[in-house]
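Model it.
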Amino acid sequence: MSRTRNTIGFRMLITVLLILLLSAYVLANQLGGSRLRELSGVVTYRERMALPPDSKVTVTLVGTNHSSSETLIIAEEIVEPTGQVPIPFVLQYDANAIRPEEGYGIRAVIEDQHGETLWATTEPYPIADLDNPEELEILVYRPESQPETVATEGQVFLADDMQFTAYFGEDMVSLILPDSRMVILPLVKSASGAKFSDGVTTFWTKGDEAFIELDGNEYHALSIDASLSPWEKAKRQGIDFRAVGNEPGWMIEIRDNDVMVFTGDYGEVQITAPVGEAEVNPQTGNLTYLAQTEILNLTVTIEKTPYTDTMSGEVFPRTVTVNVNGQEYHGGGQELR
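Modeled.
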């Protein structure tokens, strides 16, 4: 009986020792294992240039004051952008690799599909406090010897409600589309004007006019010159009537008796509403547009009397009153067609 109890006791002791060893192993593994942390932010540049397709962005966390001649790399991430700058990144690193006496910074490099450097940080962007990191904005610069592949000045076009920018280069054009997608089209033969096509997307331009075939649809576009007045821009965009006012600042545009866009209180209020034919007062000739829903009553009254702006002194051929759910705005406007 005594021998049996000794055997049982010995087995229990072995079991307890095994449990203690296993617990110590798990604890040591936890203490010595990786502790992942994150740095997040964006990579951007100042030039008004399109990012070529198939570019890649390499973001690296490096040591900045170690004595070794080799770069101390803590972590690295490669981003394949789906749009234009700013390009977001999230860089994960092991906190156990951080040395208290070391300084740290972020390097970023943008390369094209052939591995050529397009933009890069001139020196690592310093991280002041890794324990309390802020959202980072890493600015990269073009190497002086790097030739420009895309024109720096873009030309803005408007097709219906779609606005896009064309960057003309040598025998090619880069189009920045509303969803930040970029397509690069080579120059092809054309009887007149300049035509660019990759067989799927086609862009043809002649003077201020252009046509674009995109995603199976064809659009007629007009060039929008940044130096044009807001009234001329609106006219080129197909706006039929435009009015503005002050105190507070507001603006309304009516297109083809189809839609009204109202911007009020210096941009704080934004309303886009469908609209039908205007009601005409047979005695005065005044026009009234009405857009009404369950939560919105928008009325625009256009009187055939001139209006003088109270701030600029500018005289408009029409007096305009806009009523938004009982709130009235007064100003002046004019027909654009």
